[in-house]
Model the fold of this input.
Amino acid sequence: METFGRYQLVRRLAVGGMAELYLARQVGPEGFEKQLVVKRILPQLAGNQDFVAMFLDEARIAARLAHPNVVQVFDFGEAQGSPYLVMEYLQGEDLRKIWRQAQALRLPIPQALTCRIASEVCAGLDHAHKQTDPSGRPLGIIHRDVSPQNILVSYDGAVKLVDFGIAKAADTAVVTRSGVLKGKYAYMSPEQAAGRPLDHRTDVFALGVVVYELLTGARLFKRDSDRATLAAVAACEVEPPSAREPRVPADLSALVMRALERDPTQRYQEARAFGEALEGWLHAHHLPAASTHLTAYLRHLFPEPLAIAPTPTAPPPPPTAPVLTGTATGAWPVRGLALAAALGALLALGLALAAWRL
Ligand SMILES: Nc1ncnc2c1ncn2[C@@H]1O[C@H](COP(=O)(O)OP(=O)(O)O)[C@@H](O)[C@H]1O
Ligand SMILES: [Mg+2]
Done:
C-alpha cells in the first residue's frame, strides 16, 4: 500500500485527464482510522503551471463549500511534488455508471428519482452560486462541468456534486490557457460552447441536459465528433423530452425545456428555482422519491456494492451496455422487465406443477 503524505492509498478509484483519485486511509493513534478520497494531480502534470493553478483553484473553491449536496473537501497539501486534496469518501456510484447499468439491465431510472437527484444537485449548485467572500461580496462561483460523471449518488441515498476542477470564482487570478474550451462538450450551454462570458445559468442548462438524458434514455447533444457536438449545442434545437420518449408527461417535459432555453434570460434564473419546479412536480403527482427509494433502486442496479474491486492496473474494459444512439422513442425498453416477469411466471408454474404431481 502506497503511503502518500499522511495517507495510505488503498486503491485507485478513477483517473482523469488531470488528476487521479484514490480511496485512502488516514490512520491515527488509538485505532483511529478514516476512509477518505485523495485526489492528486497526475505526476506527469505536476510541473505544468496551468494544471497546478487549476488544481489550486479547485481546492480554494471547494474549501469554501459546505453543503449536504457538495462533496466535502477536508485537506489540501503537497506530497512527492504533487498537490493533492482530500475529501469525504462517498460509497456510491456516479450518474454515468448508474445510467449505463440502468441501460444494461433495462431498468430505467424512475422519473421521480430523476427529479429527486436533480433537485438535490440544484441545492448544491445554489449553495456554490451564492457563496460570498467574508465581506459579503458574491464570488460568482460557477461549476462549469455539471455532467453525469460529476454527480454521485451514495448507497444511503445522498446526492452530491463533485469536481470543482474547472469551476471558476469571478475573482480568481488563475489564467487558464486561452482558447481552450474546458468542460464536456455534450453538457455545455450554448454560451459556453461559443466561448462567451458565463454566469451561473450555464450550470442550470447543463443540469437540464443531464435531466433530459435521464428521462429519455437518449443523449441530447452528443454526436460522433467534438465538432458536431459543439455545433449541436450551439444550434440548441431541442425536441421536447415528451416527444422523444412518450412516457415523459407533458408538464415534466415543459419544466425541463425551461432549463434548456438557449437564451439564459429565459431559463430558471437560479438553480434553486429549477429545483423548486422539480419538487413541485413531485409534490403535485404525489410521487415517492425519498432517499430510501433512491437506495432501493441503487441496490437493485448494483446488488453487491460492498465487494472490493481489485486495484485496476489497466484501463477498464469498455462498457457492456449498448451505447445509446438517440433513437426517437423506446430508448428505455421494458422488454427486460417483461422477460423477468415471464421467467417468474414460468418458475411459479413449474413449482405448482411439481407440487401437484407430488
Ligand atoms: N469523494 C468521492 N467519493 C467517491 N468517488 C468519487 C469521489 N469523487 C470523485 N469520485 C469518482 O471519481 C471520478 C473522478 O473524480 P473527479 O473529481 O470528477 O475527477 P476528474 O477531475 O478527473 O473528473 C468521479 O466521476 C467519481 O466517479
Ligand atoms: Mg469529473
